[in-house]
Design brief:
homodimer; 413 residues; alpha/beta; Rossmann fold; seven-stranded mixed sheet; three-stranded mixed sheet
Amino acid sequence: MQYGWLDRSLLAAIRKMAAPVPIRVEIGPRSPESQPSRDALPLVRLKDTRALFALVRNPGINFGELYSRRELEVEGDLVRLLESLYRVPQGAVARMASRWSGWLQSNSLRGSRKNIHHHYDISNDFYKMWLDSQLVYTCAYFPSENASLEEAQRAKLDLVCRKLGLRPGETVVEAGCGWGALALHMAKHYGVRVKAFNISHEQITFARERAQREGLSSQVEFIEDDYRNISGSFDAFMSVGMLEHVGRSHYREFARVIRRVIGERGRGLLHFIGKNRAAPLSAWIRKRIFPGGYTPALREVMAMLEPHNFSVLDVENLRAHYAKTCEHWLDRFERCYDQVVDRFDTTFARMWRLYLAGSAAAFRAGTLQLFQVVFAGRACQSLPWNREHLYQKSGEPGKQNIEQDVEWTPAMS
Amino acid sequence: MQYGWLDRSLLAAIRKMAAPVPIRVEIGPRSPESQPSRDALPLVRLKDTRALFALVRNPGINFGELYSRRELEVEGDLVRLLESLYRVPQGAVARMASRWSGWLQSNSLRGSRKNIHHHYDISNDFYKMWLDSQLVYTCAYFPSENASLEEAQRAKLDLVCRKLGLRPGETVVEAGCGWGALALHMAKHYGVRVKAFNISHEQITFARERAQREGLSSQVEFIEDDYRNISGSFDAFMSVGMLEHVGRSHYREFARVIRRVIGERGRGLLHFIGKNRAAPLSAWIRKRIFPGGYTPALREVMAMLEPHNFSVLDVENLRAHYAKTCEHWLDRFERCYDQVVDRFDTTFARMWRLYLAGSAAAFRAGTLQLFQVVFAGRACQSLPWNREHLYQKSGEPGKQNIEQDVEWTPAMS
């Protein structure tokens, strides 16, 4: 196919942005003589010059917009293409993502409700199509690389309980509880009492019904309210996959809540998507997927905990596990793709496919990280001697860490 | 004993500073009728009103000064007393330590040499009296709480090698190698080649002789030079107990050195004393023990790594292990106390006793923390799937992690 000078200039601009990734770009419908890529390079096909122009003007937003509207197609492995683009140091993707600062979606009490509703109240049925049976929508922990998603999610629930060293009779507050799998796991396998907060109406309703069904309603209370309204005092604070929604400008407030509820004697765990370097989340992701989302650098989370004299005890980076989790999700999503199209529409389905593929790519490339941070108040009396108990294979969850626990300080207080 | 109004006012001031710790303070020599403390509270005995006045004026410095000169005695458990004072939230000790900002000992190339000479060139024989047989002068890792100091130091050397995932044939640069135990351990048990830097002449001389004796000179090169002069490129960067001497104002320089030598593909480990909150080291410790010393908050170390796009993979807090290490050291020190007095003098011996006791107390109380931070460059290709291999008991060091290692990224690069 012959291109005019405008097309040629725009194509050159795209290639320059993606450099050194040797990207193949074509315009217009696949012609009968166009060959499948022999060098296995993915090919990006744009609908027309207007689409190409939009991509050059603002790739950070418009790659996603064009892809969703079928004005951009990727022939070849979508995850692989995105991963290679993410790997470009200070490449176009990174530059564009940070240049386009976007609407600042407010995470005020009211703004949060709106932002969370946007993503989590799509419908429980949608998430049931491609999440695991317990609806755990956060990074799994694969004990071995070929563990199933179900096993890996169960292993994750158990890992965070072990990391917090939960013991029967203790009280735990969970900020952002999703469909309730972790809260119920803590109650059932670790014998703790849980208050679990969430502002997604659909999720809370589902979680309450499950608690009822499993006879755990007296141990677990699901509360449809904002983390800022958490009150009372607890032995431990747990938050898995929620900090991403808090927003940088609310970190001090978030930390004050933690401090208020666990005091100086409690302990806490934060599990969240982060970055090596502070930077805004991809503009398209913020526009279409997570309004108000922010994935912090570890430094920012340390700065959040520091004023309260919390001791950071353990940080683990599980980004390889999140890449694998996203691959599982994407795989399941592809299998129900036609149903998603039927129930929603093609634009919605392609938007979600791109989001899942892009997430897998970002965790593979290291554009995103997954951190678990364990911390304790300065007067916390009971902390494990080392981390060995996290890796003991006893089969039975919840039994491992109790004997291992150690009074650090037979001291004064 | 009857005190005048001045003594009484000063005693009241001291008690107020220590509150809520119910401290007992007396002035003058122990009188025949003075009873040993029945409530097991330690008693602080000051030589005279002048000593008491000095303590009130500047406890952060003068507790140590008076103790060293025998103008202040502690009857009862010294570690316990210091620990209880450290536990006072925002107490006198903390306030005084930060109020007195002290001489800023420069860690320039020349300043560092002087500062390091002050502490480490006291004489190898002195350290041989009370360190373990390998002269490891950093936090040990006690596999169980009643492991010996020798076992625990060996376990620590092994732990940091496993954390870095060292493999035969790799190259490692060590910044601040002490008497060389870790460099030799890496070479002997992990088959790597090591360049180990240190600016303490006595230590380097000792390390070279040991390498010679053990036939490891071809694998380990001990270099008497500053970390800023490290050149070449390496698979891994190791630094155990040295960041404390770098000084906050040199962190950016330090990080640039790391980045220069491991690039984007390498990995690194920093093991250092830190704090929950950024604050200067105790004034007395800086004056008498570690001129130029600074123990950072974790946030400050994260901020150091962030500009270079390093991924933090693992942080572990081993402060309970450092408390125990210091208790072992103090115990050994007490057993050779008379020899230390003979060889140096009483002031020196008491100064060191206070430093070791104070360190044990600070780690117990959580005034100090011990962090091990593992990180990797963004293009690092081989990282372990999880941390299980750190806790496999194979008896044989160095064999565990190789099969466990995993290519995260079969990808593009």
